[in-house]
Amino acid sequence: MHCTSLFVAASCAALLLLAATARSAATAQSGLQPGGKLIELDEDNWHLMLQGEWMIEFFAPWCPACKNLAPTWERFARVAKDVKVQVAKIDVTTSPSLSGRFFVTALPTIYHVKDGEFRQYRGARDGDALLYFVKKQQWQSIEPLSAWKKPDTIHMSVLSYFFKLSHTLKDFNGRLQEEYGLPTWGSYALFAIATIFVGAALGLLLVCLVDFVYPPKKSQRQSFSESQDNLTEGLEDLATEEIEDDGEAEENEDEQRESDEEAEEDEDDEEEEEDSEEQAGDLAAQEKEADSEPEKVEKPEPKQAGDAAPEKTEQVRKRKPRKGD
Description:
- This protein has helices at 2-30, 64-79, 96-101, 127-135, 154-179, 184-213, 224-292; strands spanning 39-41, 53-59, 86-91, 109-114, 117-121.
- The chain has 325 residues and is of the alpha/beta class.
- Strands 1-3-2-4-5 form a 5-stranded mixed beta sheet.
- Strand 2, helix 2 and strand 3 (86-91) form a beta-alpha-beta unit.
- The protein is elongated, with a radius of gyration of 56 Å.
- The model is unreliable at 1-10, 15-35, 294-300 and 302-318 (pLDDT under 50).
């Protein structure tokens, strides 16, 4: 009987120890601190705000307005536990991806989150106004963020990775200048070269992916030597066609020249025929006139020495000048 009592007591102690351990683990996992104090969220546990009601502040240690709001925000965290609202803060310098996910453009920025619905608080930044906002549920009058701006969507997750990458590159640039003494232009040149290589690698990867998804046909696959041979043959065919075109053009010019010469000769022959016909007509008209006049008998006169022989008069018709070749 005594052993049984000891066994029961040991079992109860073990159960109490396990319950306490589980409670501590749950508290650590949720990021809650005892006494309803301020909760710090980061890139690893930010998804806890998707359940319940939260007031979230985005701040930076170097921001003067954030420093002024810090005491008020801590007092608000202590009193907000009475209305079952959890108050948290996010440091954008250590969690740059969250600033991109929530698209934070000014500091400090305050969000109210209720069961996965996000609303930006734009009211007064004193403790009474903040407590009145959550106690009277004034957040219901504020339009929640649209679906394409919600921080838990895929595209905002992609944007958060870009913000994180930019922050990493900024830290790397500062380390190059501070620790290794690299000048500013040297770091910019290094980043430019790296960008070129990364772009070339991504382009090659994209081409390989497209070829894998849409492989070319066998008839379209040609090696570099085959493409060069085809290009050479194409150039030779083009040169041959140009030579043939030049030969045909010369032949056409020669034929045109010969046809022009033949046409000129035909015109000259036609003009000569017209001239001969006109001369024949003139001679016929003169003979007709001579036959119609009475013949006059003249006595022959003795020829004297020194007299010149009678000149024979002929009516010569001038010929039209021929066209020059």
